Amino acid sequence: MTEAVEYDVVVVGGGPTGENVVDRARAAGLSTALVESELVGGECSYWACMPSKALLRPAITRADARRVPGLRQSVQGPLDAEAVLAHRDEFTSHWKDDGQAAWIDSTGARLYRGQGRLQGPKKVLVDGPEGERHVLTARHAVAVCTGSRAVLPDIPGLAGAKAWTSREATSAQTVPGRLAVVGGGVVGVEMATAWNALGSQVTLLVRGGGLLPRMEPFVGEHVADALTEAGARIRTHTDVAAVVRADGTGPVTLVLEGGEQIEADEVLFATGRAPRTDGLGLETVGLEPGSWLSVDDSCRVEGSDWLYAVGDVNHRALLTHQGKYQARIAGAAIAARARRVPLLETDRWGAHSATADHAATPQVIFTDPEAAAAGLSLAEAEAAGHRVRAVDYDLASVAGAGLYGDGYRGHARMIVDLDREILLGVTFVGPGVGELLHSATVAIAGEVPIERLWHAVPAYPTISEIWLRLLETYRDA
């Protein structure tokens, strides 16, 4: 049975990004359909942000408590792994999407379950779970919000080894005795932190010279020191040449370049992401299947007047909060174009321009210590041709850090554009610094002049006093 229906907007992909496109389109009065092949809520709700942070929160809270005199003696025992995993399951709604599907219904949008794919301009074919077929036509726009997926490297033996990716790492129901983690990026270090705290003996294998290579170098150094002190083993400049696991069960053996072998009960490969655009019918509209989709600042696919790519699929910033931000931009742009309202394309800070993707993208890495950054690193700023100065300060020297806990260690850096006297980037590493980040994001996105930042007085004694110390260091050099 085939059903043909017409909507103003068709959204393919029901994660947070797709949900926000739906919300903005419906708020503008546009009829909207949402197509989802798995769970409404997407990767973030079930296999990424929510379950990973539910696993990490007990580890970070215990570490913070152990820094406080009078409290550390009460938290010396192991974490209750069963309770942590049960709490994680609650945060994922036990991998059921009833609540989020009900929210879609409450907006007035129509939810189609099944695999959606383009079938030429403005048409989406949906094959439902019971063999039904729907042909959806969009009057104004189709938005592709299908996200990204984990990539496994081409290593002998890996295909049959049942290795973990980020999905298995955030949804596992038991704690492995030994966990090997391949990759030193965000997923690798966060999951190493979580499972090490839950009782696994973690070995982290990194091809490069350190952790978190896309951030300022001092960030990876702090995180590596803390992981090592917590009992994890870190091997840098290490390549995995083969994986051996009989029938995908039992212990797994990693054969390293040079022949050395490491044995573990589970292995997590955290080695990158790829766009979920395979099988999406991109070839029917002249685009390459499986590719990232290049977009303008309204998230409209370059060369198209109706196709939008929002969130991970456009490869601008693979972060849930940035995908939701892009969705608000795209929704406003779709509505304006549907009403033939002229867009101020030259207004870089207008409602239809995702400027923050270029200037002030924030990210928090929930390790112990936390790492937080917004805008550009020193290397990125210099590569972009800016005349800049890096201003550094020891976070442990701020009065609020000493109150936060004994032995506090951390570091802060701000990148100053010397020609415009504004901030291009800020990076923090240290316990609790994630809550400092929005002030940095506001300063960067708002292009607040250094002379005005002087008058944003930080409360004493808080870790936020780092702002005063950074500004003093810049002034006094």
UniProtKB/TrEMBL annotation:
This protein's UniProt keywords: FAD, Flavoprotein, NAD, Nucleotide-binding
One GO term of the biological process aspect: 2-oxoglutarate metabolic process
Metal-binding among keywords: no
Pfam families recorded: Pyr_redox_2, Pyr_redox_dim
One function term, GO molecular function aspect: flavin adenine dinucleotide binding
Disulfide bonds, paired cysteine numbers: 44-49
InterPro entries per the UniProt record, alphabetical: Class-I_Pyr_Nuc-Dis_Oxidored (IPR050151), FAD/NAD-bd_sf (IPR036188), FAD/NAD-binding_dom (IPR023753), FAD/NAD-linked_Rdtase_dimer_sf (IPR016156), Pyr_nuc-diS_OxRdtase (IPR001100), Pyr_nucl-diS_OxRdtase_dimer (IPR004099)
Domain of life, per lineage: Bacteria
Cofactor entry: FAD
Residues noted as binding FAD in the record, renumbered to the chain: 53, 116, 146-148, 312
Residues binding NAD(+): 183-190, 272
Family note: Belongs to the class-I pyridine nucleotide-disulfide oxidoreductase family.
Name of this protein: Pyridine nucleotide-disulfide oxidoreductase
Taxonomy of the source species: Bacteria, Bacillati, Actinomycetota, Actinomycetes, Kitasatosporales
